């Protein structure tokens, strides 16, 4: 009987490996195809990697909602630059059945007329739709691992506002996430980094702007405690709003397209910073929505 149980366990383990390995292989192939498209300046191949209703959140550019707007962003990049190398290295994959979560590191080497060649490197978060023969992107965001001069990037003409007037979100879920975002707003305004970090799950990952990815609650807490430490910079106003909210894994996770605007002050200087985020929420043990994955960048 014990031998039979051991055999069944071995078969289950082998089955789990058989499921995980093809997904990784498929996404590695998708990333390789994306790299070939960038280097080969193949606009049609780039466009084909994204769903018609996909959300793209590039760093130092406005969000792009829908295949046409994404293709326009890619076309402007191709017209203004020559890509000499493009690589993505997967850090983690989470299989959700019809969707998959991918985090990793990227490196995009390109040249522009009159500008020195640049190696743009950082981290990324992609939510894939894995149905069909070829995985396609549902949502994607990326950002550099360190501060840099945004002038090295090509100038991109902005698209229309990314958030539809009626996002079709579940009103109950939207209200619950609004409440969580209201709490985040309060904690950021009060510079309470440890309390802000407590909204993340123990196995969460956070992809901040101009900073490498933080994996696990301890690393996330260290980041927020330092980032939100009281100092010469104060926050005068913080606006957080949601775009679409996608239920994933049968509604056990909620992918929120987020947009923010921060009014800051430092001595006699002041300004406003706008940006965007992909916020993946998952219920904690107490039933409240907690952050499982979050990635943020500046417009």
List the helices and strands and how they pair.
Layout: H1 2-39, H2 43-48, E1 50-57, E2 64-65, H3 67-80, E3 82-95, E4 99-112, E5 115-129, E6 136-144, H4 171-189, H5 193-197, E7 200-207, E8 214-215, H6 217-227, E9 233-248, E10 253-266, E11 269-283, E12 289-298
Parallel strand pairs: 1-6, 7-12
Antiparallel strand pairs: 1-2, 3-4, 4-5, 5-6, 7-8, 9-10, 10-11, 11-12
List keywords for this structure.
299 residues; alpha+beta; 2 domains; 6-stranded mixed β-sheet; 42% strand
Describe the structure.
- The protein is of the alpha+beta class.
- It has 2 domains: 151 residues, Roll (Nuclear Transport Factor 2, Chain: A); 128 residues, Nuclear Transport Factor 2, Chain: A (Roll).
- The chain contains 6 helices and 12 strands.
- The strands form 2 sheets. Strands 2-1-6-5-4-3 form a 6-stranded mixed β-sheet. Strands 8-7-12-11-10-9 form a 6-stranded mixed β-sheet, with helices on one face.
- A hairpin with a 2-residue loop joins strand 10 and strand 11.
């Amino acid at each position: 009987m014990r031998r039979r149980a051991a055999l069944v366990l071995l078969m289950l383990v082998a089955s789990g490996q058989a499921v995980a390995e093809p997904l990784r292989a498929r996404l590695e192939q998708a990333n390789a195809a994306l790299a070939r498209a960038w280097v080969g300046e193949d606009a049609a191949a780039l466009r084909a990697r994204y769903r018609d209703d996909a959300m793209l959140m590039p760093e130092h550019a406005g969000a792009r909602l829908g295949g046409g707007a994404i293709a326009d962003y890619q076309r402007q990049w191709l017209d203004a630059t020559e890509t000499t190398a493009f690589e993505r290295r997967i850090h983690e994959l989470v299989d959700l059945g019809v969707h998959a979560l991918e985090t990793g590191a990227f490196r995009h080497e390109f040249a522009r007329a009159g500008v020195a060649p640049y190696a743009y490197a950082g981290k990324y978060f992609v939510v894939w739709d894995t149905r069909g023969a070829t995985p396609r992107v549902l949502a994607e965001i990326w950002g550099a691992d360190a501060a840099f001069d945004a002038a090295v990037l090509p100038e991109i003409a902005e698209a229309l506002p990314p958030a539809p007037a009626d996002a079709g979100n579940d009103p109950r879920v939207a209200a619950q996430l609004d409440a969580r975002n209201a709490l985040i707003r309060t904690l950021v305004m009060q510079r309470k980094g440890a309390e802000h970090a407590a909204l993340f799950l123990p196995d969460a990952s956070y992809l901040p702007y101009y900073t490498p990815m933080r994996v696990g609650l301890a690393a996330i807490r260290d980041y927020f405690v330092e980032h939100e430490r009281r100092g010469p910079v104060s926050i005068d106003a913080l606006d957080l709003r949601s775009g679409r909210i996608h239920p994933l894994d049968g509604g056990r996770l909620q992918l929120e397209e987020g947009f923010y605007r921060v009014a800051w002050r430092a001595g006699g200087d002041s300004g406003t910073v706008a940006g965007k985020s992909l916020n993946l929420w998952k219920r904690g043990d107490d039933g409240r929505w907690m952050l499982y994955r979050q990635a943020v960048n500046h417009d």
